[in-house]
């Protein structure tokens, strides 16, 4: 049985990710933002559709890489949020063998305040038994 299971909740959309480590005490949020924002998009559109699309793909890949680097330090991760970004990240993580031992779950949710995100993470991890900590039945 694994002790000290590290659990992480990631509320995300296409431009911002709010990372909350599960704790029975006070929880804090760390924010990771994509470099490709609305202002950047408008600037790139003026330079041409191809340039804009290329830059957007590159920035999105960097955004997902930053999230992947953080997620690999945990045993369990929940991805939640209002857009399909959580599913895109899940697919990327699922293809990488480094994440084969990490329990990752995708849950649709609405836009949330920081306090709502903390409550969501606390509720999820306190009511769902840890898959990593469960003893196999023989």
Please explain how this structure is put together.
By secondary structure, this protein is an alpha/beta fold. It has helices at residues 38-47, 49-71, 85-95, 114-127; strands at residues 7-12, 16-21, 29-33, 76-81, 103-108. The protein has a 5-stranded mixed beta sheet, sandwiched between helices. The longest helix has 23 residues, at 49-71.
Secondary-structure element string? EEEHHEHEH
| Residue windows where pLDDT falls under 50 for at least 5 positions | 132-138
Ends apart, CA distance between termini? 15 Å
Structural class: alpha/beta
Secondary-structure arrangement, i.e. CATH architecture: 2-Layer Sandwich
The CATH first-level class comes to: Alpha Beta
Question: What number of structural domains do the residues give?
Answer: 1
User: Count of DSSP E strands?
Assistant: 5
Average of the residue pLDDT scores: 84
Q: Provide the spatial order of strands within the biggest beta sheet.
A: 3-2-1-4-5
- What is the assigned CATH homologous superfamily? eRF1 domain 2
Give the overall form: globular
Radius of gyration: 17 Å
Task: Show the helix and strand layout.
Blueprint lengths: L6 E6 L3 E6 L7 E5 L4 H10 L1 H23 L4 E6 L3 H11 L7 E6 L5 H14 L11
Parallel strand pairs: 1-4, 4-5
Antiparallel strand pairs: 1-2, 2-3
Short description:
The chain is an alpha/beta fold. It has 4 helices and 5 strands.
Main traits of this protein?
138 residues, 4 helices, 5 strands, disordered C terminus
């Amino acid at each position: 049985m694994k002790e000290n299971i590290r659990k992480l909740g990631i509320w995300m959309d296409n431009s911002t990710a709010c990372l909350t480590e599960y704790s029975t005490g006070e929880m804090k949020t760390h924010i990771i933002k994509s470099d490709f924002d609305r202002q950047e998009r408008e600037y790139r559109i003026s330079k041409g559709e191809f340039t804009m699309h290329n830059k957007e793909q590159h920035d999105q890949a960097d955004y997902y890489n930053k999230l992947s680097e953080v997620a690999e330090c945990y045993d369990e991760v929940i991805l939640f949020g209002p857009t399909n970004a959580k599913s895109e990240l899940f697919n990327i993580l699922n293809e990488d063998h480094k994440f084969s031992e990490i329990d990752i779950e995708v849950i649709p949710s609405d836009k949330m305040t920081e306090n709502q995100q903390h409550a969501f993470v606390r509720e999820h991890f306190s009511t769902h038994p840890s898959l990593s900590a469960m003893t196999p039945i023989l």
